[in-house]
Amino acid sequence: MIKLLLVIVGSIILLHQVVMRIVRRFWHFPAPAFISHVLDSNLRRRVQPPDVLIEWSGIAEGMKVLDLGCGSGALTLPYARAVGPEGRVYGLDIQPDMLDLLVRKLAQPDNKGISNVLPIRASAHNLPFAANSFDAVGVTSVLYEIPAPQQALHEIKRVLRVGGYLAVTEMFMDPDYRLKSTTIREGQQAGFMLDQAYGNFWTYTVRFSKPEAS
Ligand SMILES: C[S@@+](CC[C@H](N)C(=O)[O-])C[C@H]1O[C@@H](n2cnc3c(N)ncnc32)[C@H](O)[C@@H]1O
Fold first, then answer.
1. What mean pLDDT, rounded, does the chain reach?
2. How large is the average pLDDT for residues 90-104?
3. What is the 3-state secondary structure (H, E, C) of 148-191?
4. CATH of 34-209, one of 3.30.300.20, 3.40.50.150, 1.20.1330.10, 3.90.190.20
5. Is the CB of 71 under 6 A from ligand 1?
6. pTM of the model
7. Residue ranges per domain, the chain?
8. Residue of the CA atom closest to atom 15 of ligand 1
9. Which of 6-15, 108-117, 172-181 has the lowest mean pLDDT?
10. Which of 99, 100, 179, 192 has the highest count of CB atoms within 10 angstroms of its CB?
């Protein structure tokens, strides 16, 4: 009975993955705001614990961080706590509905102490920041949802300071998921230096740094 159940659940997941990947190949659109139920779920926090992602991303106290494609802020708030009052986090997203969710989250009593988050509506293709202005950029379940990932990577490189970190995190369940090797190749093609790669097939973070001559 349990075996049968596992086969049914496994087949549904596989079918969902195949259908979604075919759809995404032909139809590019940002993840709809209702996905925030999944992004903010306990299951997601189990699979991708924010404190682990923070460690893998090299985010530390006092840093100025860009959470690119922040969505409803599932990681923006943990980033804000990690950088502390001396640091700052810019939550950037292309969709107003996602940013509304982030703003609402910031207004919740539990998060009243957080005053270092700035929500910004913009596209990853054209970042509204000066060159060399960030210590770290987090790109979680976003890179391959962006229509021109190389353009976004070049923009990220422009706004990162030399030695700053770009952390690209992917999760298999995301229909835009790509393999770790693909992400390493894309980052290097954009001129980043591979720093560390963490995780496994199901979820991983590749951390790059911006080299001196770039
Ligand atoms: C799957 S969600 C991930 C949200 C968040 N990073 C997380 O891990 O919880 C992808 C987000 O990327 C945003 N996005 C997609 N294309 C974008 C673009 N070109 N510029 C900025 N944000 C974009 C979407 O609006 C969406 O909020």
1. 94
2. 97
3. CHHHHHHHHHHHEEEEEEEEEEEECCCCCCCCHHHHHHHHHHCC
4. 3.40.50.150
5. yes
6. 0.93
7. 34-209
8. 30
9. 6-15
10. 192
